[in-house]
């Protein structure tokens, strides 16, 4: 299939057929950010939620000065929690350190766990050590996915102090939690990390054991 020109993509984004709009939006991946972002904005209010979601994600990978304020506004005001979660995730991809405060607010104030999950993941992507207290608090969440996000994020920001808080998940009944722990400890060199990883290397779930081995090798290197 021939690649669409910028003019063709622009016209197709206004097509009454949602499939045309979706294809056009996907075609923007190869378009420079400065040309793509004005076109992405065309479908941010699309009637099809999947297209809106794709557009929000696209703003996270297209770096222009316009992207950050648009994503923050969506995170803070969009009535659809899925779009708010997408905006939180896109801010993490954008990598703009200004997103720290909006993401913290979203974690503490949004009532939807999916938004809070995306905010925690993105705080890890920002690698900002100021997220320590928030992420440690998230470890006590009743939502297992929030615990997993917090463990992974603490590993991403390489917060050595977090080892004391996350090793308690070694005996977790949830294998994915144990896998996230094994992956995170590979970024946190300490005697406790090594001890926990040696235990997890014998885990009954192969994904956990493999993650522990990889992390031990990383620490040894």
Automatic annotation (TrEMBL):
For this protein, the record's InterPro entries field holds: ARM-like, ARM-type_fold, PBS_lyase_HEAT
Record keyword Signal present = no
Name the SUPFAM superfamilies on file. Answer: ARM repeat
A cellular component term, taken from the record's GO annotations = phycobilisome
User: Where does the source fall among the domains of life?
Assistant: Bacteria
Q: Keywords of this protein's UniProt record, alphabetized?
A: Antenna complex, Lyase, Phycobilisome
Q: Name one GO molecular function term.
A: oxidoreductase activity
Q: What is this protein called?
A: Phycocyanin alpha phycocyanobilin lyase
Q: Which organism is it from?
A: Aliterella atlantica CENA595
Q: What is the lineage of its organism?
A: Bacteria, Bacillati, Cyanobacteriota, Cyanophyceae, Chroococcidiopsidales
């Amino acid at each position: 299939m021939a690649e669409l020109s910028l003019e063709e993509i622009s016209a197709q984004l206004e097509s009454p057929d949602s499939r045309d709009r979706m294809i056009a939006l996907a075609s923007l991946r190869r378009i420079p950010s400065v040309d793509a972002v004005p076109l992405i904005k065309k479908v941010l209010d699309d009637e099809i939620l999947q297209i809106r979601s794709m557009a929000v994600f696209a703003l996270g990978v297209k770096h222009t000065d316009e992207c950050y304020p648009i994503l923050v506004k969506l995170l803070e005001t969009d009535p659809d929690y899925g779009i708010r979660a997408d905006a939180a995730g896109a801010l993490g991809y954008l990598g703009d350190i200004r997103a720290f405060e909006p993401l913290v607010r979203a974690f503490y104030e949004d009532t939807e766990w999916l938004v809070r999950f995306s905010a925690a993941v993105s705080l890890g992507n920002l690698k900002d050590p100021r997220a320590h207290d928030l992420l440690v608090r998230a470890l006590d969440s009743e939502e297992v996915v929030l615990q997993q996000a917090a463990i992974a994020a603490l590993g991403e920001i390489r917060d050595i102090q977090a080892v004391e808080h996350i090793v308690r998940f070694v005996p977790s009944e949830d294998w994915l939690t144990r896998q996230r722990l094994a992956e995170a400890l590979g970024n946190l060199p300490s005697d406790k990390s090594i001890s926990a990883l040696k235990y997890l290397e014998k885990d009954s779930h192969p994904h956990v054991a493999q993650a522990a081995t990889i992390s031990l090798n990383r620490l040894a290197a």
